[in-house]
Amino acid sequence: MFKALIVEDHAEFRRSLGLILAFHFPSWSLAEAANGRTALEQVRDFEPNLIFMDINLPDENGINLTKSIKAGKADITVIIVTAYDLPEYRRAALEAGASHFISKDVLSKGIVLQAVESAMTGSSLPMPGERHHLTSH
Q: Which Gene3D superfamilies does the UniProt entry name for this protein (predicted)?
């Protein structure tokens, strides 16, 4: 079974993203974490295939958390979803091992589905018209 973890401190955003994923991927198992400590526990116990990771978490930086997760489990795909759409964050996220970087400012159901498809197939992003908001390596 495919498993996805949403690491986000804002409950409403976690819920919204979870609803999109549950609707479009009903066979997936979903889990949530509101902070870095819980995220690491979920990675260990839930063993997700895909993680949606916020950068600004109460107890940890999502970029550092991504680097730690990828060091132990390189096969987990991490998609950074953040309000901090800055080139230095984008670069740091990709260097930490994230597959994609999505700005919350442009986040939509279509972009989430596009990122999931890209992550699952290994195809590259950004797509035309999204080059400033959706980044992959």
A: 3.40.50.2300
Angle CA 107–94–130, to nearest 5 = 35
Q: How buried is residue 85: exposed, middle or buried, by Cβ count under 10 Å (0-12/13-18/19+)?
A: middle
Q: Which tens digit of pLDDT belongs to each residue from 23-47?
A: 999 999 999 999 999 999 999 999 9
Q: pTM to 2 decimals? A: 0.88
Domains of the chain in start order, with CATH, are 3-136 (3.40.50.2300)
What residues have CB less than 8 Å from 85, skipping those under 6 apart? Answer: 103, 104, 105, 133
pLDDT in tens, 61-115: 999 999 999 999 999 999 999 998 999 999 999 999 999 999 998 888 999 998 8
Classified as helix, coil or strand, 104 is helix
